Amino acid sequence: MTDTAHPDRGPARAPAEPITEDALQIAPNPPRRALPLHRELDRVWSDLPGWRGFFASVNHSTLGLRFMATSFVFFAIGGLLAMMIRAQLATRGGAFLDTALYNQIFTMHGSIMMFLFAIPMLEGLALWLLPKILGSRDMAFPRLSAFGYWCYLLGGAIIVLSLLAGVAPDGGWFMYVPLSGKTHTPGINADVWLLGVTFVEISAIAAAVEIVVTILRCRAAGMPLTRMPLMGWYMLGTAAMMLVGFPPLILGSVLLEIERAFGWPFFDVLRGGDPLLWQHLFWLFGHPEVYIIFLPAAGVLSTIIPVFARTRILGYGAIVAAVLGLVFLSFGLWVHHMFTVGIPHMALAFFSAASVLVAVPTAVQVFAWIGTMWAGRVELRLPMLHVMGFFATFVMGGLTGVMLAIVPFNWQAHDTAFVTAHLHYVLIGGFVFPMMAAVSYWMPVICGRWRVRALGEAAFWLILIGFHGTFLLMHLTGLLGMPRRIDRYPGNPEWEWLNLVSSGFGMVMAAGFALFAFDLVLQYLFGRRSHRNPWGAPTLDWAMALPAPSYNFASLPGPGRDHADALLSLAGGEGLLPGAPRGQREILVVEPGSGRPEHVAVLPGNTLLPLATALAVGSFFALMLAGLYWLTPLSMAAVLWTGWQWGHLMGTDRAHPPVRVAPGLELPLHWQVRPTLAWQGTVALLVADGALYVSLLFGVGFLGVVAPMWPAPDSGLGLGAALLAGLALLSMAAGSLAARRAEARRDRPAAARLALSGLLAAVLALACLAGLAALLDDPARHARDALRAVTLGLAGFHGIVALMLALRSLADARQGRLGTGRRGAIPAWRLFQDFWLATSVLSVGLVLLQEAG
Amino acid sequence: MLIGAALITALVLVLVALALRRGAGGTSERRWTIHWGLGFTMTVLALLLGFGLWTGERMISRADDALRVEAEARQWGWRFTQPGPGGESVTTEGILYVPAGAPFDIVLRSADVIHSFWVPQLGGKMDAIPGHENIHRLQADAPGRHEGLCAEFCGLGHAAMRFEVVVYDPDGPPPDFASAPPPAATGEGS
């Protein structure tokens, strides 16, 4: 029944390198009995029993698994749609679906696979794995994990249910305007995409913020960045790209939704817009997206390959450099999706070179993996089979990608089945195979069981054969001239046999995926109990009992206890911060670079708040979708109210004594330090916010230079508007000043007065912005006016956030939650207030420049 | 290029296979990351990029006195304007007439959404975008008829948005510049 290769005899171990700084001396805690320690921790960290546990969980293991399981359900739905596409194309007459439905189905296949499978799958993997492999007990923001999950689930449900209602998006997964504009898509199909995907993207931004902060601050004591497991580097790169890459898409979606709902022109050429702006914003997201998907998968490969080659990874430094190179380069090649839109050849040459160049860091990694296998002795266990599937598939996808980066070839192959084949080689080779390797590798940690024999191998071969049978010939189909997204081809019998072969093998692949899922279920239900660390891996994710306990580590890893063999010592409480003696969820926070322990963060426990917040946000999207715009202020109020509740848990009204983490090492709780996780998270969020703002500036500049129908008609803005803008800026500056002084004088009664004056300054600034809104030219007149209105709206949005934080700071001051060490919400208020001021100064300067020019 | 890609794929897979068969043994990091990863890759890519840019530069439209024809795309059809017999413009639906043996520029416009002009047998494609005018250079060497299609998804009639290019012998009798017959019902969905 079970795999006979179970390593009872103790396999050859992959050698463990010390990943912590030896110089950092931390004495062990006295050993304790493991079972009482487990009970003490489990009481604090586990989910609530019953249905409340489902809705109130904030635990990273629960949520990570839930993300992955949900994404697999969406993968199955997307796969079903793919089978319908293949059934339609199997013959040239294609009588299976009508065109309208076919258009919905291929649009939904792409959208689901990208937004509801790939991104959430990697978020789930990061959420589930990072604390384990970095040596912590949870992610930095457990409630944010839960909030992201609910946004994902609700947004995904809206998108998928639209298919059942027959109003699914039908403009292709990249939703080019004007086809997806109101004139050509009058129904709500496009709104479903724009609102649903934006709702889901909230979870992507949330996950990115969390991943960055977790990797920088929640590692094992003494683990410097330069020695952390490669998975950490890959996920850090991924999250950084998400922070910068998603905002252009979010901005584009918001603009298009505003154009559809209120008629403000951004993409309408008759009123100063340009459809190419959408393409730029979309691919500014869309190309980094490919690497956002690929990097975590590459992280899996860099983790798994050395384990099965029984050696160390070759070229740690080169791989880190390659990751950083990919992150940087991936933002310079979005235009290669737009080689046929009529861009000058000089510009094409630049983007072509950048697109070619991005193959270099990828190749460095591929050769480092081969070198690792070369140096060691490879055991072809099931996860390694999937790694072989990666090599057999991805290399070709990468090479066809290089071919597509060559401009003349691109002109021929663009928008044909060749591109379809290429992107499936890249995504299935570069993401799905590594993810299957990851799941089969970590299943023992997930469910504590060993797999059932042979089924997994059968599934692998079915998928591999089915995949290549489907997509290899599709390159040829494309070169023979078959474009993408057609539903029948009566005049081209020469394409028919190729499509028929693809369709047949597509079914084989689908059967393979079904078998893969079935195998996982069998393992979960009937697998034999797994031994500890069955693969002989060196990393900390195996330094725990199987399945992983709710708290991961009974005591936290540190120097001398930084690899899988430290399991017993950690479970016996010899590591840092053992147990849960204060009855709260505590983790260690370290200095970002060196990993030196800094303070102890108290994390929130089970709560329904994330669900309530997601429902409030969801009601906004639902009302927008229903066209009930006048009701949306109710939703906004609900969002503000739930958002306010989040702050209750984030302060304390008394000074806490330092906590003994290890003999001779006492650290403060996070309420009494300034560089908290929350502060770092706010900075990360503002990076994304800044990327959104820069995207908006890009839009202003792009339309002004490229779009027809410019310059815009004369504006009615005059001296009154200038005075109001000046007063608004002065009030914002006064707010920034008040926040600074309030923080400096936090231990005195003056703090409350300063917070109050900051609050009033924010109210005044918002009132000025409202006055400006009344003076603006009609936004529906011209793109310039529409962009000004959006810029003003964005300033108003930031103003409301700053106002809420000022109010929170005032409440903190009044309720005694400020003190010598305790700063309450003031640092976050300062950040937002400064951001509000800086972007507003830029915006006013931009308008002045437009008016002067 | 296809053959090159196939060779490189085979090379990498052979390296993987060798790595699998080989027992444990020392190897140097430089060999894999620097020699293979940077050296081999950069060489291949530089050659390819240079070739691509050179070819692309020769293919693009430039200011000379090449023949100009116009194409306006709409949902779902093509209208072409080309010089007819005697030099005056002739407008046709669904068929483009060009002489063989000389380069010609197509000025592409769109009346509604984005379309893309593509004649697979003649060369690359170019988008027709509302508000923009794109110029695309092609050349047909011998008289004949070629299938053309819209390559950018444009809604319900996308699959049926075909056209034809008739290449005529400039020294022979001129063609009749007739429009295409209206398409038969192609089942464009409900």
TrEMBL record, chain A:
<feature type="transmembrane region" description="Helical">
    <location>
        <begin position="233"/>
        <end position="256"/>
    </location>
</feature>
<feature type="transmembrane region" description="Helical">
    <location>
        <begin position="347"/>
        <end position="375"/>
    </location>
</feature>
<feature type="transmembrane region" description="Helical">
    <location>
        <begin position="600"/>
        <end position="621"/>
    </location>
</feature>
<feature type="transmembrane region" description="Helical">
    <location>
        <begin position="149"/>
        <end position="168"/>
    </location>
</feature>
<keyword id="KW-0813">Transport</keyword>
<keyword id="KW-0408">Iron</keyword>
<keyword id="KW-0186">Copper</keyword>
<feature type="transmembrane region" description="Helical">
    <location>
        <begin position="192"/>
        <end position="213"/>
    </location>
</feature>
<keyword id="KW-0349">Heme</keyword>
<feature type="transmembrane region" description="Helical">
    <location>
        <begin position="63"/>
        <end position="85"/>
    </location>
</feature>
<feature type="transmembrane region" description="Helical">
    <location>
        <begin position="683"/>
        <end position="710"/>
    </location>
</feature>
<feature type="transmembrane region" description="Helical">
    <location>
        <begin position="500"/>
        <end position="522"/>
    </location>
</feature>
<keyword id="KW-0560">Oxidoreductase</keyword>
<dbReference type="InterPro" id="IPR000883">
    <property type="entry name" value="Cyt_C_Oxase_1"/>
</dbReference>
<keyword id="KW-1278">Translocase</keyword>
<keyword id="KW-1003">Cell membrane</keyword>
<dbReference type="GO" id="GO:0006119">
    <property type="term" value="P:oxidative phosphorylation"/>
</dbReference>
<keyword id="KW-0472">Membrane</keyword>
<comment type="pathway">
    <text>Energy metabolism; oxidative phosphorylation.</text>
</comment>
<dbReference type="GO" id="GO:0046872">
    <property type="term" value="F:metal ion binding"/>
</dbReference>
<feature type="region of interest" description="Disordered">
    <location>
        <begin position="1"/>
        <end position="21"/>
    </location>
</feature>
<comment type="similarity">
    <text>Belongs to the heme-copper respiratory oxidase family.</text>
</comment>
<dbReference type="InterPro" id="IPR023615">
    <property type="entry name" value="Cyt_c_Oxase_su1_BS"/>
</dbReference>
<feature type="transmembrane region" description="Helical">
    <location>
        <begin position="423"/>
        <end position="446"/>
    </location>
</feature>
<feature type="transmembrane region" description="Helical">
    <location>
        <begin position="458"/>
        <end position="480"/>
    </location>
</feature>
<dbReference type="Pfam" id="PF00115">
    <property type="entry name" value="COX1"/>
</dbReference>
<feature type="compositionally biased region" description="Basic and acidic residues">
    <location>
        <begin position="1"/>
        <end position="11"/>
    </location>
</feature>
<keyword id="KW-1133">Transmembrane helix</keyword>
<dbReference type="GO" id="GO:0005886">
    <property type="term" value="C:plasma membrane"/>
</dbReference>
<keyword id="KW-0679">Respiratory chain</keyword>
<dbReference type="InterPro" id="IPR036927">
    <property type="entry name" value="Cyt_c_oxase-like_su1_sf"/>
</dbReference>
<feature type="transmembrane region" description="Helical">
    <location>
        <begin position="105"/>
        <end position="129"/>
    </location>
</feature>
<feature type="transmembrane region" description="Helical">
    <location>
        <begin position="828"/>
        <end position="849"/>
    </location>
</feature>
<dbReference type="GO" id="GO:0022904">
    <property type="term" value="P:respiratory electron transport chain"/>
</dbReference>
<feature type="transmembrane region" description="Helical">
    <location>
        <begin position="313"/>
        <end position="335"/>
    </location>
</feature>
<feature type="domain" description="Cytochrome oxidase subunit I profile">
    <location>
        <begin position="39"/>
        <end position="560"/>
    </location>
</feature>
<keyword id="KW-0249">Electron transport</keyword>
<dbReference type="GO" id="GO:0015990">
    <property type="term" value="P:electron transport coupled proton transport"/>
</dbReference>
<protein>
    <recommendedName>
        <fullName>cytochrome-c oxidase</fullName>
        <ecNumber>7.1.1.9</ecNumber>
    </recommendedName>
</protein>
<keyword id="KW-0479">Metal-binding</keyword>
<feature type="transmembrane region" description="Helical">
    <location>
        <begin position="276"/>
        <end position="301"/>
    </location>
</feature>
<dbReference type="GO" id="GO:0004129">
    <property type="term" value="F:cytochrome-c oxidase activity"/>
</dbReference>
